User: What shape does this take?
Amino acid sequence: MRERSVGIGAVAVVLGVLGFHGHTLSTAREMKSQTAPSASVTDAQIVKAESQPGNWLTYGRTYSEQRFSPLKQINDHNAARLGLAWYFDLDTHRGQEATPIVVDGVMYFSTAWSKVFALNAATGARLWSYDPKVPRQWGANACCDVVNRGVAVWQGKIYIGTLDGRLIALDFATGKPVWEQLTIDPQWRYTITGAPRIVKGKVIIGNGGGEFGVRGYVSAYDAQTGKLAWRFYTVPGDPSKPFEQPILAQAAKTWTGEWWKIGGGGTVWDAIVYDPELDLLYIGVGNGGPWNEKYRSPKGGENLFTCSVVALKPDTGEYVWHYQENAADDWDFDSSEQIILADIPIAGKPRKVLLHAPKNGFFYVIDRENGALISAKPFTFINWATGMDMKTGRPIESATARYPSVSAPPIVPGPLGAHSWQPMSYSPLTGLTYIPVNEVGFNFKSQDDFEFKNLALNFGIDMVAAGMPQDPKIKKAILDSVKGKLVAWDPVQQKQAWAVERPGPWNGGTLATAGNLVFEGTAAGRFEAYRADSGEKVWSFDAQTGVMAGPVTYTVKGEQYVAVLAGWGGVFPLVSGEVAFKSGRVRNVSRMLAFKLEGKQSLPLLPPQEEPVLNPPASTATAAQIHHGEAVYQRFCSGCHGDVAVSGGVLPDLRYSSTLTNERWFKIVRDGAYQSLGMVPFGKEVSQQDAADIRDYIIFRANQSKSEAKAKPDPGLTHGPPAILGR
Ligand code: CA
Assistant: This one.
């Protein structure tokens, strides 16, 4: 079970041995034409970020991560006059999830493949860029696209966590590496996609991989030297060995079986928030791995600290308190989603709380001094729980929540989450939280013959049963049930103030401003502004591509800008197949977009999209071969090429592959012919017969899709040109 393919890890080890570094692309001419940025951000400055409204100093602007800006030059009365000030085209075309940092007129941000850019925030002119040269094969270790959500800035350095697990400090003026640390054991499928945070001279960084057999932890490194200061493991390791922290002895009592052999999950892949008032660090901990508790902790148990908010001492990483949102997770209900700190009135008295809207669909208000639950209500439709038991602080699970072996409606929300990484915002002026909400169910069925396999989706869930059925009526009902919306939520009243319906899920993060505005990008390719108090739309811009990232606002020489990173991708279009098209059939045009009042720039017209031709060979395989091919495809391939062989547009749609009729198929699938583009060899996991059956299944699906298209022409059916592997 522990045996691993060494292929991917070996690449990183070799690169490490050779002292391999990325390149800095700045030129002397570019540097000379720009004012040198200061980037001398100190802890004290981040603590007092409120006093620097023109800058965006840390991932969520301030330590509270409210993503509220006091700027109001752009407001609900003049937002209709917003125009594009500048745009900057990127050299990657995968999901773009980063929130930029802006310090004294310079914008720093990360892109797909963990690249970093520094731009003049008033003009978009490039100052420098840095490519950590993540081996493309490492992309196969990422559950959710090769994304990155942001950098940190502190005392003249820019910090980036890379997909292959490195933490790198760059010189703010040149983009040249100052130090680099490998934060993971490359034998395991860890990835970093989250933004580092700087707390009291330390860089705090987590990682992802809870779907693939890793053990979660968060680490603190000295920001000057890169030396490891402390590490907090979120789940206990092998209890026959000493526990790394005393609290893990307690946590181990909530586990059964031999969970440590397949990691246990509990990754800290997004929320890391510092509270300077209480000197506490809050982390959001991810799902248990495998998802199905039966295969993780077979005799039950709460499985601490999966699906929890945990408070730590930032100097030592010592445990202080925790609140577990889902005990004994069975659904991939990460609690990693962003945490907002706020002081809000509870029963007439101001309370120091944290606001949390994790995947499971409850909006939690938690006392951040001690972790006590103050209130929790569903912020959208859910059916896995019927409410919250306030005595125990535990959700009241519905009868079908733990997928008993009866046919039941899909569980809502599914693993996409009612709210995922897309940042929400909180306006202290309106008292409302602005949440990008998903409503997508999932058909959970326990996998009968689960065995941990490297390079597979190790959920313990039957992925064939979870796949989109092809019966037109059932398919239509499922697609009709999939929704997305922007919800303004009152955390005091625990009720919705207003909502804007979207065609589908996976819309952008939000920004709230003192100009009574909320900004949000959409999956369908718009960037929009709404009145924060009423939800009335005041402005909308054609962004030409899906926008997922969190917007920011800042000033340069007294003029206010709003900027957002555009570019479609991430886990939803990567794995969801046809469901992804509910949100809009957009292309990935990866760009930084910046707006101001009376901005006069315009985006170049997109070239017309080629209509790919579906021309598969005849399907001649037996039903048994096709069924077996489907099972192997869903377990090994669907995570990147899409549910039931329909790509959501991020990676190539195999139904269109020219290798369906020749032997090159096997060279790519089993031998790694496209390894340098990110398609790793599956020869150890997938036999020659498996590979042949996968191909038969795809040929079958391509023929099925072709006859469907003939029966009912869909004018919107444009999958776009085949995705460019590796970019
Ligand atoms: Ca997860």
The mean pLDDT is 92.
